[in-house]
Specification:
Layout (H helix, E strand, L loop, with lengths): L3 E7 L8 E7 L6 H11 L3 E7 L11 E6 L4 E2 L3 H14 L8 E5 L2 E7 L5 E6 L4 E2 L7 H5 L5 E4 L3 E5 L3 H6 L4 H4 L6 E7 L8 E7 L4 E4 L3 H15 L4 E5 L5 E8 L2 E6 L1 E8 L7
Parallel strand pairs: 2-3, 4-6, 11-12, 13-15
Antiparallel strand pairs: 1-2, 1-18, 3-4, 4-5, 6-7, 7-8, 8-17, 9-10, 10-11, 12-13, 13-14, 15-16, 16-17
Length: 277
């Protein structure tokens, strides 16, 4: 028997938008080297691997062990592949429609529930940025545009630039971005007047094998607190202005955030028995 494998577009309401993630359902924990090979074969920004947990005698536990791999490495936190995983579990009947999805990860317990109008709400850690002064060397050269403010979250750099048009037109130098002291680089600006979102962003992470990520949930753990404080709003909406594009709602809640998005399954299949060995 092979292993069920799906491709789900996350942070979008239509197929071929948002950020595609592969979701692989396993019966037992697999060798990390094998998972890395599968992720490299899928060649998407993230592949998620899910293993069901049994409840203990006291009714504790349950849920799923969840790990995320880029084509190059395992990562500690991924929003869009978590959203894709929860969507697929409800869609496939592994979870009942009203049941909470519980994921045990390298970043602790993450949960998701179905909200209104097809939105999925995920409970994630807040990763607000701290200001960096001076900015890391190479940042301005890597981006090729002036930077108004620079901060750092737990893993990423955050660069604020002049406007949304600047974010959309960015063509950073990946050979310089990869040398920055971070997992990835988030670039952001306020949305244009009258837009249906509050801010725009893009995310570049060549150091982990992702030159540009289409829509990055974990980056919004940083962007949400940053823009909520800056704009004085309890809930903010971000648009990640990659070629595919996608929308993320963020509600900061102290040391946690609620990330909300939609998802669409675009491929249903399985790894062959030979590949799944």
């Amino acid at each position: 028997m092979g292993a069920p494998l799906f491709v789900v577009d996350a942070f979008t309401e239509t197929a071929f938008g948002g950020n595609p993630a592969a979701v692989c359902l396993l019966e037992a924990e697999a060798d990390p080297a094998w998972m890395q090979s599968v992720a490299a074969e899928m060649n998407l920004s993230e592949t998620a691997f899910l293993v069901p947990r049994r409840e203990d005698a006291g009714g504790e536990g349950g849920g799923f062990d969840l790990r995320w791999f880029t084509p190059a490495t395992e990562v500690d936190l991924c929003g869009h592949a978590t959203l894709a995983s929860a969507h697929r579990l409800w869609e496939g009947g592994e979870l009942a429609a009203g049941e909470e999805a519980r994921f045990h990860t390298r970043s602790g317990l993450l949960t998701a529930r179905r909200g209104a109008e097809g939105w999925i709400e995920m409970d994630f850690p807040a990763l607000p940025p701290r200001p960096l002064d001076p900015a890391p060397e190479l940042l301005g050269e890597a981006l090729g545009v002036p930077v108004a403010w620079v901060g750092a979250s737990r893993e990423d750099l955050l660069a604020l630039v002049a406007d949304a048009a600047t974010v959309r037109a960015l063509a950073p130098d990946p050979s310089l971005v990869v040398r920055l002291p971070a997992r990835g680089l988030i670039v952001t600006a306020a949305a244009d007047h009258g837009a249906d979102h509050d801010f725009v962003s893009r995310f570049f992470a060549p150091a982990i094998g992702v030159p540009e990520d289409p829509v990055t949930g974990s980056a919004h753990c940083c962007l949400g607190p940053f823009w909520a404080e800056r704009l004085g709003k309890p809930v903010v909406v971000g648009y990640q202005a990659s070629a595919r594009g996608g929308t993320v709602r963020v509600q900061p809640r102290g040391d946690r955030v609620t990330l909300s998005g939609q998802a669409v399954t675009v491929m249903v299949g399985e790894l062959s028995a030979e590949a799944a060995r």
